[in-house]
Amino acid sequence: LNSCAGNHEAVIDLGMQALKHLGFNIERRLLSLQIVKEILYGMVLFRNSRLEAIKNAPLVTDKRLTNTLEILNIMVASAYMTDENLFALIVLKIGNISARYGNSLYSPLAYAAYSLILANVLDNYQKADKLKDISLHLAELFGDDLFGAATYFCLGSFLIHWTSPARESLKYLQKAFDCGFRAGDYLYCGYSLMLMIEMKYLMGQSFNELEKFIEVHEKYVKKINNDTLLRSFAMFRDHINMLAVPGFSLQDRLIGDKDMELLGTNEAMIYQLLKIQRLYLEGKIEEAYKLACGAVNNLASIMGCMSQVDFVFYFLLISLERMKKRKDNQFWQLNMACRKYRKKLERWAQMNPEDHRGKHLLVEALLASLTNRQQDAARLYDEAIEQAKASQNLLLEALGNYLAADYFRCNRKIAKVYAQDACRLFSKWGAVKIAGRIGKMYGIEDCAAGEVSAARDGEEIPKSGGQVANGLLGERKKDHQIELERLTIEDAHKYFLDTICPEAGVDFGAILLEEGDLLKLQYVWQAGRPLNTRWALTPNSSKNCQRK
Q1: Of 6, 14, 38, 546, nearest to 265 (Cα)?
Q2: Within a 10 A sphere around the Cβ of 2, how many other Cβ atoms?
């Protein structure tokens, strides 16, 4: 009863008492030590040579063991919401008991949950995949209506999406909901709906699609009577309204910051992710950075969730935005953190390119632009946009165009093309207020309004920003060539440095001329400074110059 009502602490306290009576004691003050012990024990029990034996193991007949497994299975959901270490320990215990003593009705969930530890803690995705297959085999063998909801929920929420497209995870979550509804397991019905809307959002689906999903499933909220699900729907409605509805204020929200902070559960993490994303899109980088720093240090609380990727992605985007200004006193420390999380994002992109490669490419493009690798940056932005388009991730495609517009700011024609596409895509996604903000930033309010209107009417622009931008680059190159041909040599040098260099986005340019044995550094240009005439250098004197 407490589990279905979302009284997580009561579930854990009652479970601990029941386990103690059965001779299974969990000491909450020594969780880390117990986790290490269970991991080492599991390495023996789940070695490759035993996996086939586990699949065909006899049924457990000991009543004490089946009661223990039942209690641990009830506790696992509440532990996940409140204490990641307790959750990990319970999952390890369920798996180890099943592997040692034999299979039971609880084994499908046991092995599904254990595969989460194998993948996300021990980084053994290959063995996790084998254990997933055993879990699915046993679920079908025992009849998935009885314990299928929890098993399919666990696989869909925490495992499948790491190595397969997220749409495959959605199928498992839908299956979990269907099984739970047939069996009357409303606890996992509620959790499945929560993770489905979260995953749909992370896949970049439009606000219209999300609102339809909420409306279709809202009738189940009353039937299920799950406060956690009610809060989940409320926070997504608030987020949509804050990005889409003009005049919507913080006071109009269904749920506030303090309400989430008081819960003490990992529900607050998805709430924080939505807030970080919103602040970033609104240009409030400092506020977003403070939240993102705290969130990435708490990723263990959402172990296995797809939202881990987006927390890392937005932390990197926001950190790189701060690096642009070069005003951060902890620049090198921040750079080290970025390096660590870039590796994580790159690994996730390799495992699931459909959902995460676009994010990785955007981060690499932004980094390339910061390190003056201009050609790499332009190429990476276009690749990221194309990847997002192929994955049908509206938000990611809009973000790619938004960042590309900022990168090409020195060339207003190209920047406007990307900005117009960003306006159209943000509007199509549903974030009309963000589309309006971009329109003002690039002085294309009227054009942006037209894009917003076209997106609402379902019209498409025939060319992508990258294709049009490449065409404009070619035209601009011809313009420069014509201009250079009609100028004197001295004026051509100045034109190259004063006009072409800023458009190319470079920070430094120079022209060296030969005069006999002298190498003359005739003109030097730096971004934001006037041209300078320099001195002549002999080959010998150049050796004593600074390396730069």
Answers
A1: 6
A2: 16
With tokens 């034996």, the residue in question is 53
Question: What digits encode the pLDDT tens for the residues 306-337?
Answer: 999 999 999 999 999 888 766 544 555 556 66
The number of angstroms, rounded, from the C-alpha of 18 to the middle of its chain's C-alpha atoms is 39
Tokens encoding 37: 């012990």
- Which structure tokens are listed for 446? 């009227």
Asked if the model's pLDDT at residue 506 lies above 70, the reply is no
User: Closest Cα to residue 399, out of 426, 376, 379?
Assistant: 426
The 8 Å CB, 24+ separation contacts for 59-68 are 59/102, 59/103, 59/104, 60/98, 60/101, 60/102, 60/103, 60/104, 62/101, 64/22, 64/23, 65/97, 65/101, 65/104, 66/104, 66/105, 66/106, 67/18, 67/22, 68/19, 68/22, 68/24, 68/97
218 in Cβ contact with 233 (< 8 Å): yes
DSSP 431-488: -HHHHHHHHHHTT-HHHHHHHHHHHHTT---SS-HHHHHHHHHHHHHHHHHHHHHHS-
Buried b (16+ CB within 10 A) or exposed e, 484-506: beeeeeeeebebbbeebbbbebb
The domains found in the chain, sorted by start residue, are 2-221 (1.25.40), 352-486 (no CATH), 489-542 (no CATH)
CB 308 within 8 A of CB 121: no
pLDDT in tens, 433-478: 999 999 999 988 766 566 656 655 555 544 444 544 555 455 556 6
